[in-house]
Amino acid sequence: MRLALIAHDEKKPDLISFAEERQADLERFELMATGTTGQRLIDATGLDIERKQSGPLGGDMQIGAEIASETCDGVIFLRDPLTAQPHEPDITALLRICDVHQTPLATNLASADAVLDELIRQLDGEE
Ligand SMILES: O=C(CO)COP(=O)(O)O
């Protein structure tokens, strides 16, 4: 099962803490991330993560393409709701394509736990 991890700059510390707390669970997935998020997560946890471009350079669109291809099963995207992003259209497109494909999407820490728990439940059912 493939999971995407993304965080805006103000939320990267939260995502790193989440990944540290849930590292054993995350290791069960094929992970992908936008560029800077991925590097920060790798540095902090050593998780094996496929890094896409940085978000403003097209990383959100690359993850959107994975969702459109049905090669990404869930997204944890800790958005910063208080800071304008130069690539807002890409962010909107990513959220939209998740809805089009019924891809589980968490946009804050509380729902990140819920989405990860559900995907783990599905993984356990597959085994
Ligand atoms: O901007 C982002 C998502 O919209 C995240 O990109 P980075 O992980 O490269 O910072």
Automatic annotation (TrEMBL):
GO terms for biological process: methylglyoxal biosynthetic process; pyrimidine nucleotide biosynthetic process. It holds the Pfam family MGS. The active site is at D60. One of its GO terms (molecular function) is methylglyoxal synthase activity. Transmembrane segments: none annotated. GO terms for cellular component: cytosol. This is Methylglyoxal synthase. It comes from Haloferax marisrubri. Catalyzes the formation of methylglyoxal from dihydroxyacetone phosphate. Keywords: Lyase, Pyrimidine biosynthesis. It comes from the Archaea. It catalyses: dihydroxyacetone phosphate = methylglyoxal + phosphate.
